[in-house]
Amino acid sequence: MAKALDVVGDRWSLLVVRELMLSGASRYTDLLDGLPGIATNLLADRLRDLEEGGVIRREKAPPPVATTLFSLTERGEQLRPVVSALGSWGGPLLVTGPRSDDEFQSHWLALPIAEFFPGKVHSPPVTIELRTGDEPLVIETSSGRVKTRRGTAKAADLVLSGRPEVILPVLRGRLDISAARKSGLKSEGDPKALDRLRSEAGINA
Questions:
Q1: Residues of each domain in the chain carrying CATH 3.30.1050.10
Q2: pLDDT tens digit string along 73-87?
Q3: How far is CA 186 from CA 142, 179, 189, in A?
């Protein structure tokens, strides 16, 4: 554990890994945008440390982009279960005690959503738009799997708007939509769309 923490034990190191897990190959500015609060010199230090530890690689993107891209190595990809486990462990802290100065970006929800709905989906297509954080996030079934993407949906079955600490337990089936409205959740569309999705994942509301 001590040797592992020497490489990824700093708070920002695993958050850099998380961003690369979510977005794939990224520019320095992409990582800076996805890590609110990190200083530019600190990000540069962490990228250097992770590269020296064999966790990430840097490479030049071909023209016309012609910039440096950072991505996970095979060894970096092996940290996925570590990041997922820490996210699951920390989830209750978000729900029970968010601070007013906590930062949140909607694309971060892609990791817990992948944990909630990991298997094959056989029900009719479902599209759910989440309006929380800095931009909308869409959950949709595609090719038999649940996927997420940034942006809006032209014809969502269900739209959920509210704080992430309310939306997360609704998705997980730990809070009913009608009860969540008392905590500020707004919903438009058919709640049964979420029921179908949760049923496929074996989640009982």
A1: 99-200
A2: 999 999 999 998 998
A3: 26, 11, 10
